[in-house]
Amino acid sequence: MAAARQSTQPASESQPERVRRMPRAERREQILDAATRAFARTGFTATGLDDIAAEAGVTHVILYRHFASKNDLYRAVLDRACTRLGDAVGTETYDEGSIPALLRAAAADPEGFRLLFRHAVRESEFRDVIDRIRLASTEIAHRHLADTIPDGPWQNWAARLIPTLTLEAVIAWLDTGQPDPDHAANRIGQAIQGVIQAAQTG
């Protein structure tokens, strides 16, 4: 009888395989990782939610459970990159460990670093993120330079130039394959010292 027949098909083949449901926080990080990679490749405007869903291996439904829009997702990516950078480098002072820490942070998250300082800096809607970083960096530079350059326009010049030079130097270092990591911080430090000397001469 048909009812008495037992299937010879293994249970794993006769029933659909269950997909493991990822904890919400873990899924959110997975999406942020994928979005960081996708946005870093082509920037905000040229990257669609289809690209991000494909990169993360999730559906649009899952994507929208975590982020209301592409703007919401992009800002979350930038905020996470800022937090990671601040945790790695610090946000209050500059000392001899700051540039090595910045290089380590950039090497650990090159896509996030490029998003902040190559892409977002050109996107007016998200420029506030970078403006906050630049303002804080300039204030730190002012405090660091106070003992070596007299207060005035040349100190202002150096305080604005040094953060820009440092970030561009790190991006160039990433783009050229992270050469000579043991001495890269010293080379960037020499460039910064050149700015300080020029400001002192002025």
TrEMBL record:
Q: Where is the composition biased (Basic and acidic residues)?
A: 15-25
Q: Where is the composition biased (Polar residues)?
A: 1-14
Q: Does the keyword DNA-binding apply?
A: yes
Tell me the keywords, alphabetical order: DNA-binding
Q: One Pfam family this chain carries?
A: TetR_N
| Domain HTH tetR-type stretches | 25-85
The UniProt annotation puts the region (Disordered) at 1-25
- Please give the superkingdom of this protein's source: Bacteria
Recorded hits in InterPro entries, A to Z, give: Homeodomain-like_sf (IPR009057), HTH-type_TetR-like_transc_reg (IPR050109), HTH_TetR (IPR001647)
Q: Which residues bind DNA?
A: 48-67
Which residue spans traverse the membrane?
none
The answer to whether the entry has keyword Cell membrane is no
The entry's protein name is: TetR/AcrR family transcriptional regulator
Q: What is the taxonomic lineage of the source species?
A: Bacteria, Bacillati, Actinomycetota, Actinomycetes, Pseudonocardiales
